[in-house]
Write a structure and sequence with these properties.
Porin; 313 residues; mainly beta
């Protein structure tokens, strides 16, 4: 019971701080989760899936599965994407479906730098079995009615990238939908739960340290204006012979971790990450696990692609 109470109190804190979007350590391998402008950036029909089990050994701890697919079209300026996110924590289930559109322009053909503008349309099913929550004492009217809502939303973003760097900014949920069963979708008050509008900024670069070693740092910044302070995720990876990734991660005032990934072929990649929290929850959990898999079906401009051509983002 103690662990359930700790989890519920933490979930209340997370809601207060508006951290409602999925959390991934290996975010750089599936940028479509946060930014619709990421669509088409791998110049291939690309698939990526990530599963995260957070705070193992705590009953009802968050589990998140995400899947994304995207590709440029015959008109190379246009790309389409689709992503699905299933979020589970305690008695709350969130399932989000999103379709993305991106328009890409070449900034520098010689350096293969592109800028992409993206928009997305999504629908999220929010389900909360509040009546299943075991209360310590008495009854609370707030826990008598279950929640089942479909919430529409829109997203927008900009993404600039080449083979060796990327930078982007996006708003995954522009609309602040009400999470109150009785209210209208866009109707909310100060004391009612609702979706918060958050801003995501990402960036990364690949430095050559030699013929067979590269250094690839990246950062993900999350900000919820007026409701939460900046949250920063830092990753630092070393890439060996363009195949093996080994790195560390740090989430500001929250956790640190280790990650490894392998480009099994130029098209297939898999990865694993393990996080340890630095919060009081460290006394109750052995950490968080995350696995990733991705596949690129076919690079488009074959005449411009050498056998050693590798996408790092």
């Amino acid at each position: 019971m103690r662990r359930i109470l700790i989890l519920l109190s933490l979930l209340v804190t997370l809601t207060t701080q508006a951290q409602q979007d999925p959390q991934h350590t290996m975010y750089r391998f599936n940028g479509l989760i946060y930014n619709p402008a990421y669509a088409g950036s791998r110049d291939a029909l690309s698939l990526a899936a990530i599963y995260r089990w957070q705070w193992v050994n705590i009953d009802g701890s968050p589990q998140t599965a995400s899947f994304g697919i995207h590709s440029p079209l015959k008109n190379d300026h246009i790309a389409l994407g689709f992503n699905f996110v299933a979020d589970r924590y305690s008695v709350v289930h969130n399932d989000r479906l999103e379709g993305d559109f991106a328009y890409r322009i070449n900034i520098s053909k010689k350096k293969r730098i592109k800028m992409s503008f993206g928009v997305g349309v999504s629908a999220t099913n929010v389900r909360a079995a509040l009546s299943d929550v075991g209360l310590v004492q008495g009854q609370d009217a707030k826990f008598q009615n279950n929640v089942n809502l479909w919430l529409p939303n829109i997203s927008a973003g900009i993404y600039v990238y080449s083979q060796k760097f990327f930078a982007g900014i996006a708003v995954p949920q522009i609309l602040s939908n009400s999470l109150t069963q009785k209210g209208k979708v866009w109707e909310r008050s100060v004391d009612s739960a609702h979706q918060y509008t958050s801003i995501y900024a990402t960036g990364g670069y690949v430095f050559d340290l030699g013929r067979k070693v590269k250094f690839a740092p990246s950062v993900l910044i999350k900000w919820v204006p007026k409701f939460a302070p900046l949250s920063m995720d830092f990753n630092a990876n070393f890439i060996f012979i363009d195949r093996v990734w080994l790195g560390i991660s740090y989430r500001l005032s929250n956790s640190y971790g280790f990650m490894a990934a392998v480009n099994i072929t130029r098209q297939l990649r898999v990865g694993y990450a393990y996080d340890l929290t630095v919060t009081p929850l460290s006394h109750f959990t052995t950490g968080s696990h995350e696995v990733m898999a991705g596949f690129d079906f076919d690079f488009r401009n074959r005449k411009m692609v050498s056998p050693r051509y590798v996408r790092y983002f």
